[in-house]
């Protein structure tokens, strides 16, 4: 197993992406230091402790993004830090306190702990396409968005896209700090993440997706969905550690699809559930842009077909009794 004898740290380990990351790292033989906000909350810890290999190779640490030095003990002795911990909130009463400070100051806090560890060779940061393609003029008629694109935090702030502001500023802060402190930083920028859930709670992105497939509430106002499977996203993180040539940022988007196309796939998967009514009078228009897969595929990422991701998402939501399809 590729991770045998290697110790890595995963922050925000009870989250949607991070839970899969802990599981697949354990599957590959890594020893994992996983941070959670509270060791006393079974909803944050029990599913992690049930993973294969957890008994032998998983240690849980309590850590808080806003507390200086909170991550020191978790990163000690690690060869890689996976920093996934960041608030995912799409509407905030106090965006600075709820989103921006935890994202930016929290990222710097974690990286300060990492910079103290001599054995730590690489940092893999979970960013988002929110830091890539918002507040900028998107291409039209078949144009391609790639890793050279950066969201404009000033415009995002004017539009009150606070999540996008938090991810953009946090990524910028991480890049600057890493350069100044000799950390080898690789950034993963996933699209809207779908796929099966491991954690017992309904995360924000899965809840919004659930509202879309059950109630028709659009996730994105223009009906263009920038989707990626959670398992593919996690494989990208692990390859970002395992491939020495990994560098810079990686757009992680499996499919850019219109809402009507998703509904047509769901109608074929679940013909008895009335999705055809939402397909009525809808044609799939050409998409104005795509997101490049070239760089992340060069790492070795293979994308899950959208139909599989959609079916696995729904079956997982049903299994966990979050939906009654």
Q: Concise description?
A:
42% of the residues lie in helices and 17% in strands. The chain has 325 residues and is an alpha/beta fold.
Describe this structure in words.
This protein has 325 residues and is an alpha/beta fold. It has one domain: Rossmann fold (3-Layer(aba) Sandwich). Helix content is 42%, strand content 17%. It contains 13 helices and twelve strands. A seven-stranded parallel beta sheet has the order 3-2-1-4-5-7-10, sandwiched between helices. A three-stranded mixed beta sheet has the order 8-9-11. It has a two-stranded parallel sheet with strand order 6-12. Helix 1 links the parallel strand 1 (7-11) and strand 2 (31-36). Helix 1 (16-27) packs across helix 9 (230-242) and helix 5 runs parallel beside helix 7. The protein is globular and about 60 Å long. The model has no long low-confidence stretch (mean pLDDT 91).
List keywords for this structure.
12 strands, Rossmann fold, globular, alpha/beta, 325 residues
Tell me the layout of helices and strands:
Blueprint: E1 7-11, H1 16-27, E2 31-36, H2 42-49, H3 54-57, E3 58-62, H4 72-75, E4 80-83, H5 95-115, E5 122-126, E6 143-145, H6 153-158, H7 162-181, E7 185-190, E8 192-194, H8 204-215, E9 224-229, H9 230-242, E10 248-252, E11 255-258, H10 259-269, H11 275-279, E12 289-291, H12 294-299, H13 306-319
Parallel strand pairs: 1-2, 1-4, 2-3, 4-5, 5-7, 6-12, 7-10, 8-9
Antiparallel strand pairs: 9-11
Helix pairs in contact: 1-9, 5-7
């Amino acid at each position: 197993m590729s991770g045998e004898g290697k110790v890595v740290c995963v922050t925000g380990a009870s989250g949607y992406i991070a839970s899969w990351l802990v599981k697949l790292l354990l599957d590959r033989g890594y020893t994992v230091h996983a941070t959670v906000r509270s060791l006393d909350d079974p909803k944050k810890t029990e599913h992690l402790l049930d993973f294969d290999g957890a008994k032998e190779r998983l240690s849980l640490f309590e850590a808080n993004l806003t507390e200086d030095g909170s991550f020191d003990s978790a990163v000690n002795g690690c060869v890689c830090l996976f920093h996934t911990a960041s608030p995912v909130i799409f509407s905030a009463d106090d965006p600075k306190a709820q989103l921006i400070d935890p994202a930016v100051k929290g990222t710097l806090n974690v990286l300060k702990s990492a910079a103290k560890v001599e054995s730590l060779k690489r940092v893999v940061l979970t960013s988002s396409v929110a830091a890539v393609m918002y507040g900028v003029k998107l291409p039209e008629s078949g144009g391609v968005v790639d890793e050279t694109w950066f969201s404009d935090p000033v415009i995002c702030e004017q539009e009150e896209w606070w999540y996008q502001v938090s991810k953009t500023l946090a990524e910028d802060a991480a890049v600057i700090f890493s350069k100044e402190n000799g950390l080898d930083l690789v950034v993963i920028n996933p699209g809207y993440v779908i796929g099966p859930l491991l954690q017992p709670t309904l995360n924000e992105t899965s809840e919004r997706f659930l509202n879309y497939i059950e109630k028709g509430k659009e996730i994105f106002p223009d009906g263009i969905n920038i989707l990626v499977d959670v398992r593919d996203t996690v494989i990208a993180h692990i390859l970002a550690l395992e491939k020495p040539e990994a560098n810079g940022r990686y757009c992680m988007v499996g499919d850019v699809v219109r809402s009507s196309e998703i509904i047509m796939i769901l109608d074929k998967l679940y013909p008895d559930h009335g999705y055809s009514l939402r397909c009525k009078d809808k044609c799939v228009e050409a998409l104005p842009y795509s997101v490049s897969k070239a760089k992340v595929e060069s790492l070795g990422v293979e994308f899950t077909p959208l139909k599989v991701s959609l079916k696995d998402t729904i079956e997982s939501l049903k299994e966990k009794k979050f939906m009654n399809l």
